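Entry 14. Ran structure prediction on the chain below.
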Amino acid sequence: MIMNEAPDYSAFDALIKQNKCFSVYRNPGEATIHFVMQQNGKPEYLQDLTALNGKEGFVFAPFKVTDLTPVVLLHPDIILNGKKEILGFLKDSSIEMQSDDINAVIDCRLDNRRTYQKAFELFHEALRSDYCEKIVLSRPDFFPKPSGFSAGKIFQTACKAYPEAFVYLFHSLKTGTWLGSSPELILSGEGENWQTVAMAGTKKISKENETPDWDEKNIREQQIVAEYIEKQLYTHHQTCFIKGPFACKAGRLMHLKTAFFFRMIDNSKIGDLLDILHPTPAVCGYPKKEAYRLITEEEGYDRSYYSGFIGKLSLSEKTGLFVNLRCMQIGAKLLTLFAGGGLLTSSELEPEWEETEAKLQTMLSLMEK
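Output, structure tokens:
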């Protein structure tokens, strides 16, 4: 009996080595993977989300747009769907991969806890003084890149491990290589029918069907996000149907989620809508202006594309854009992982640190499979 050869997802590593601008991704609840690559010309680099008005392509947006971290818009000239078609096309792209020397990596984790604690204390003081009602504090964590690491194979593992998440691998000259498994939609729709969500509040679960008890802190944290999104949609003249809040599972974590369904007659102005939604209080805080200032000035590091958004942007087909959470940036020697959580006046340092540790496991566990 002849066994079928397992699909070789390491072919995507060859594209990274060749510095190709591409993404492979899998939408939530689907089995089919999708591949987009721009071979001709350069991606567009945009300095404002409103510049996405009337445009199509595959977008990768940062938390804060700067010259170093612009909105990247691929205009793919190769679009493929399904493992067989994609891996067949990539078969001729394979090149010999070189392993990284794990012992050459400098440990960048020494000051991580100290930096987080300093930012926590500063943010908590801002909350106690009513400067903000909610601030999202995040942090990076650094891990040596294992010998023989394959971004393509980790993408394959993530697709299997997190069937209800948006899973992606993205590479471009400007951004480097990113991989993630996001549970959070920022905008999805086709024609006149559109949707966004408010997701906040986190509980770690140990059993498959466990239903956690939601405390006042998590309920209020989620409510702030939901109220903000409803207000922004109203500002954009969108009347919406609201469902929730309800609990949703993301790996070994549970979150509170509210879904907003609305009609958008003119989707050529999608950049305007993204500009007033992003960043939501789920990744920033409230009031937005004050929380954003504290994060960009005092969080202690540059988030780059973490807590930005990624996905397909289309005027004629379905758009699907997701917040870039549960992600890693893949460097030559280091893997940089990111995690964060919302702070209220009732927040305490140790539980918040432990929440980020649990969120980091979304990516870390993939390398153990």
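The first helix runs from residue 11 to 17. Will compare against last week's run tomorrow.
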